[in-house]
Write a structure and sequence with these properties.
The structure is a single chain. With 260 residues, the protein is mainly beta. It has 2 domains: 11-40 and 81-93 and 177-217 and 226-260, no CATH class; 97-171, no CATH class. It has one helix at residues 81-88, and strands at 11-20, 27-32, 36-51, 60-76, 92-95, 98-106, 113-115, 121-127, 142-146, 151-154, 164-170, 173-176, 185-194, 200-211, 229-235, 251-255. Strands 1, 2, 3, 4, 13, 14, 15 and 16 form an 8-stranded antiparallel beta sheet that branches. The protein has a 3-stranded antiparallel beta sheet with strand order 6-11-8, with no helix packed on it. Strand 9 (142-146) and strand 10 (151-154) form a beta hairpin. The protein is elongated, with a radius of gyration of 29 Å. The chain starts with 10 loop residues before the first strand and ends in a 5-residue tail after the last strand. The model has no long low-confidence stretch (mean pLDDT 94).
């Protein structure tokens, strides 16, 4: 037996997501997730099986699938706010650069570490709580140990009156809260190239994916590769697609026979 063609697969490509309207299934704008080092789809089916009891062989006489399940696993290596929001069931919060005056940093003893309320600080001035506030001397009475994180140390209490107050400038930042948003529901499109077939294009569409929260993110990394966010999602039945359509209601894999 011989085959007319050989078709192997070794893939690389782009993953894009579009938020789905939970009622209508309408899609928002597509967003490329950036570098992703893994994408796999798994399909399973639960079966009803019956073994007969009349022949002495306990042979299987009927088997048919019932529940059909599909999942998708993704490893995202781009840890931007949009991907973090997807992974953390979170909402993004952008803070513009600004200034703070008279921020209470507490009643401290010499040697105590304290954090300013905002990271990315500059021009830090510490004063005390006397009627006419005294200004502490940076380097003598306090130090700014890491401006990126707003971490400081009180060096000398002297005759200063507690609590101490801080004035400073801070940089713009983006933050993502954890479990502050509903479970994401997205459509997934994979634009792949098959290196084993001369970079032939391969298109994968998953119509409705509800993602699970982040499975694992190594915040302290070792080894020879960057950290990745492991995300799993359920590929669900999309009832906005026709049940009798040729590509079904879950998704489709398209091999494009002639590249543009």
């Amino acid at each position: 037996m011989s085959l007319d063609t050989e078709n192997y697969y070794y893939g690389q490509g782009r993953i894009s997501l579009a938020t789905r309207d939970p009622v209508t299934g309408a899609l928002g704008a597509w967003r490329w997730v950036g570098d992703a080092s893994a994408l796999s789809v798994k399909l399973t089916a639960q079966k009803v099986q019956h073994n007969e009891s009349f022949s002495g062989q306990v042979a299987e006489t009927v088997s048919f699938p019932t529940k059909k399940t599909s999942t998708v696993d993704i490893t995202l290596n781009q840890l931007d706010p949009d991907n973090l929001a997807l992974a953390l069931f979170g909402t993004k919060q952008a803070t513009v650069a600004g200034t703070v005056t008279a921020e209470d940093v507490g009643t401290l003893a010499a040697g105590d570490t304290f954090y300013l309320a905002n990271p990315g600080v500059s021009a830090v001035v510490i004063t005390d709580s006397t009627a006419t506030p005294k200004t502490l001397v940076e380097g003598t009475d306090y130090t700014v140990d890491d401006a990126n994180f707003g971490r400081c140390t009180l060096v000398n209490v002297g005759t200063y009156t507690m609590p101490l107050k801080a004035a400073y400038s801070y940089a713009a930042r983006n933050a993502v809260g954890m479990f502050t948003a509903p479970q994401p529901s997205v459509a997934l499109r994979y634009e792949g190239v098959n290196l084993a077939q001369g970079n032939a294009p391969v298109l994968v569409d998953l119509y409705k994916v509800n993602t699970d929260p982040l499975a694992d993110l190594a915040l302290i990394t070792t080894g020879t590769d960057v950290a990745g966010m492991q995300i799993t999602g359920g590929v669900l039945l999309d009832t906005t697609k026709p049940s009798t359509g040729p590509l079904g209601q879950f998704g489709a894999i398209t091999q494009i026979t002639q590249a543009a």
